[in-house]
Amino acid sequence: MAGNENRNHRVNATPNTGTPNTAAPEPAGAVETPADSPPSALRRLRSSIARQVGRAAPTVRDGARRAPVTLAVLAIMWGVFVVGMLTTRSVRSFVDHHLALGIVPIENMRLWTPLTSGVVVVGWLAAIASTVLLLAVAAPTEQRLGSRRFALVAVLTQVGGALVALAFAAAAQVLDEAWGFQLHLGVFSGPFAWILGTLMAASASATTLWRRRIRVGLVAFTAVLALFGGHLGDVMALATVAVGAVVGPLVIGRSPRGSRLAGTRREERVLVALVVAASALGPMIAAFSPNAVGPLAVLRELFRSQPWTVDEVNLVCAADQTSADCRRGLLDLRLGGVGPVIASVLPSVYLLVLADGLRRGRRFAWIAAVVAQAALVVLAAANVLIRFVDDNDTIFYGTAEPTLYRSVVPFVVPVLVLALLVVTRRRFDVAAPRGTYRELWTLVAATAVGLGVLYVLLGTWIRRSFDGDPSVGALLLDYPQRLVPPVLLQWFDAPFLPNSGPTTLLYEWTGIVFWLVLVVATAASFSRVTYGVDSDAAERAREVLRASSGSALSWMTTWRGNRYWFTDDGRSYVAFRVISGVALTTGDPVGPPADRRSAIVGFAEYAAANGWSPCFYSVTPDAAAITSDLGWESIQVGEETVLPLKDLAFTGKKFQDVRTAVNRAKKAGVEAEWISFPTAPLAVTDQITAISEEWVADKGMPEMGFTLGGLDEVDDPAVRCLVAIDEHRTVHGVTSWMPVHRDGVVVGWTLDFMRRRSEGFRPAMEFLIASAALSLQEEGAEFLSLSGAPLAKVGDPTEDSPQATTLSTMLERLLDVVGRTLEPVYGFRSLLAFKSKFQPVYEPMYMTFPDPAALPSIGNAIGRAYLPDVSIAQSVRLVRTMMDR
Prior knowledge:
Strand content: 5-15%
Keywords: Cell membrane, Membrane, Transmembrane, Transmembrane helix
Distance between the termini: 47 Å
Helix content: 55-70%
Organism: Rhodococcoides kroppenstedtii
Region (Disordered): 1-40
Pfam family, one: Rhomboid
Oligomer: single chain
């Protein structure tokens, strides 16, 4: 059967009994009429407009009814704006003196300004932008919170944020006199700040994923504005967001979801990537904000050279054309064109590309980001030394500032980012396929050499257009500088400068081409499919699995985190991970069944040669029988539930719950639809991600790994997802299905990922599993494996003989106790009971090992395999939860 066809089609759990389309055909001889005459077309246009207005009117009325506070603010804002335009000569002067927020208005006893500043604007652009924000952000927020709570939150964030911003502005002069002076004189008006603060407060009741996105996004955005822009309005926005974070839980209430900032490993990577991206965007924001006054605004000089004018340069050079000031002024003029600006921005663009690699967990992106931040630390340190040690008046970024504080600030930012990268280094362990970066560096080196040859050849040809008539040697020595960000060239005196259009193009754009190639090639390397820490071995394992045979859990061997041992003939392999000296495998050896015994023996010898204790985990009875013949011990660690499809029909009393779920889905307009997560629409995958993050937040614990997949495992082209989706494209639940191969053919599918929207269609899982069974039955699949539940078995585990006292039996009892203890948190036994609704065939799964003395280490290895990232706080929470239950 085809393993991956029909990825985006709907699945009907019951046969289609609809009647055929019986629309009447057009009458014979009908003739197409010519185009409408102008009057007729005009009437039809008027009629169409009237219909659209009629359809939109109820929506507008409903919006006005549900967001009256927002519309009242909008009316007041435009009323004051229009009246001011008609009655005063200078609207800005009137607003700044009487209605806007600022220290000076407060000193003049205009105590109403913390409130009035939130409903007045100056200028058409501000009025239009504020209108868009009110309608697009404030109105939906009001509809979600209710008008009374929305009004209360809006007033609290506006007034509270204003007071915090004013207090900070008054105290800022102690830290930074120049910035504090600008804040003291500054004024601000408009609803921008309190809209963000209200949105921050509303996030308290949002779902886990959206709460995290809103909070991280707002804090990062407003912090960048305040630190790089630095105006009173920027500080006000950050202050209202902070006040909103406090007001939200008090007025709106806390969400029942977990409050951890980072949820899954995937989300932690995203958050680190956001920080790195913000560190790259901040200087660019300051660079293109001519009036930026924030403490980090000094970094704009990474993109802009020192501000010389043509008249100043002419004046200096008229006095002495050979002076250093003349040469530096000429160089600065050359560094101020379009080409140098682009060349200065491209390193930050490269950091943004690395942030995307961090989001994907790439090891290369982490290494490159660390190198980049370390380079920024070195440059910042050089800045301090040049400013306060060097007596040669060398010009470098930030040296015009009079304080040590302003010179040290650029040093702090990359240090903090570098520290974050070091702390989170274990999150970035995904390697690219073999040869990826050999190809990358070959391309980059070839580009550098090719551009160097071109620069020397063309430069020699048009060298008379340079002011110094450079020789071949001079061009060759100058070429490396063409690849350096222009701001760093302020350290060097240029031996020659271009004097014509062609020489300027060659001089300025050679480095741009190099950086563009580096940026594009690096971005392309991140788009290559990877399968974990050892991507090449994982891809080889996939090829063996597709061409051979494996158990129902064999696709888990391709997951990230596994290492691989292959037999000498390459026909079989064992997936494993080494933890605490234990080589813990994932399921049976993969390969021809006839070679299974030799694969087990070969892997055991390989593990022993490396000083590891081998342990085959979650293996089938066949593999357990082989190890038993070898004298190994075995313990049952779970129960696999298999659903044969040949004669499956959900009829009879025993399938009543399943049929009820299918019928309820039909009445609710919920359908089952196959998708592939990597290629599915963003609107669908975003909902799946949100549902998963909610589930993790509910647990208050990290997702378990090893034999339990998450979103990273779902994001695989070979894995099929079945989603429960309604007519509004709302996803109510999702399941993922891994292929099971036999002799190179997909014969079945194994259930892995299961998530349901907490407030959605409740029997979504029953509906999806039933729909998958019927759909895959039609495709010719032999069976479905509903997978196993760790530490859960059919029957009562307390029935073990009390006479047994072997270490293996004691560990089996201990695992039963652990399974019962973890039940309130992870619900493994409830999951096994849920799967019993489908009347499956139960097959035991075993853990088998040669040395009982290694059992303590094996138990520790299993725990760390399932929960590799559990923190001390989470461990305490887990123990507390188990004690409470």
